[in-house]
Structures are given as structure tokens and as C-alpha cells.
Amino acid sequence: MKNNVSRRSVLGKITAAVAGVLAAPVAKAAKTVTEKVLVTTEAPKNYDPSKHRWAMAIDASRCIGCGFCAEACKKENHVPEGPYFRTWVERYIITKPAPDSGAARGETLVDCPNGGMHGYPEPSVPKEEIQHSFFVPKLCNLCKHSPCTQVCPVGATFDAPDGAVLIDPKYCIGCGFCIQACPYGCRFLSPVTKTAEKCTLCYHRITRGLKPACVEVCPTQARIFGDMKNPVPDDPLQKFYQNNLLVSLKPHLGTEPRMLYAGIDKEVR
Length: 269
What we know:
Alpha-Beta Plaits; globular; 10 strands
């Protein structure tokens, strides 16, 4: 979930950031190193990112809003306490249209108390006025054309060859440009490290043959994860692709997200 960075604080860092890119050898060296993917990650030394293509899909029709995924992510990735999340779950409530309005559906209400970790309050509208409600897990959309990587002045955020979008904390200067650029609200500035953070698909786990923590704990298998270059027999991710009508969030932006959804309504953004 996005931790808002004030425009004043971002603008206040522009001069220093731009000067660093243009003049500082350290910043230039950092950009060169990260562009070659010789970066600080938690992958084992023998891991070859060119031999994998990680992907995840979400089946919203299976999500029950338990919030186990958000809680597991917090613990697994040492996400700071408070309103900081690498993944979270939103509740969508679609009300019935007003009588004689001619509309197919009414108002859309969205809430996400504490990332969805500890349940949701009773809806603010009577149950008899609700037409449809559902839960939608959110996380990094793994954009093919990532706005965050385009605006980073030092190349600290980058697209890995295996499909993950990562941040090298050793080079991140905490300018917040990537946080402002992400159209999905998936990044935040850590109050502990003062660097940008986001979902990494639990890179330290998947590069060792494990599933992301959120996938591991999901009781309804609403999150489907796999390696497109190395499918397993009866691969659940490929079966999901074949058997569902999949959509991405905000396709009009041209980011081409690789995070795909099934079972969501048009109100989800």
C-alpha cells in the first residue's frame, strides 16, 4: 500500500538527485552496475536469472479476505509496523442502483483497514442494499514497462531478467521518485532504512525453489505462482492462464503488467 510522499519533500530532493546523476561518479557507477544486474539481491550465488521467468496471478473469486497473505509478508520481509505493506487486500462493495435510475449498479465502496490483516468492519450500508462484494489482493504489478524504473535517477530499481522488479537498497537514495511514479501505489519509503520498498515476490525464497510467503499461506489458493520457463507437470499457473479470462489493472497506461487477475469487476483499479 502506498505511503504518501509529499510533493514538497520530493521537490526538495530534485536538485540534489539530479546533480548526483549528472556530476557524481558514484551515482554514475551505481547506474552502470545495476543496469548490468550485478546487484545486491538475496539470491544464492549459483542462481541464474536468465533461466527463469517468474509470474503470479490472482483469482479474486477465491479470496476470502482473511489477510493471512499481508501478515505473512510483513513477517517474512521485515516490513515496518504501521501503514506499510508490500501486499494488502482491498474490499469492494457494489451497492444496488437507486430505483428507477436505469443504472446497472450503484456506488462502489472500497476499504482496506490495516492492509486487511485483521478483518473488516461491518459494511457502512445495509446488507439488503449490497449488490455484490469481493476482495482483491494487491501487490507489485510486475510491469513490463515499469514507470518506477524509468524515473529512478541512479538505477537502484530495475527489471531483472527473470521477471522480478527489484530495488537495490545500496544504491537507493530515498528520493521517492519511484513511489510517485508507480500508478498502483505499490511502493513506500521505509521509515527504518529511508529507502524505497515494494514486493519482490519474496526473491530470497523463489530463487531457492520456495513459494512467496503470501502464496504459501493462502488457504484458498487465490494466489497462483510459477516459473513460466520451467513449468512443472500439471502446472497450476499455466492451467489458470488457459482456463480463465484474465485482465490487468489500468491497461490504458501502457505499463503492460504481468500481474494478471481473474474474477474482478471493472471498478477495480
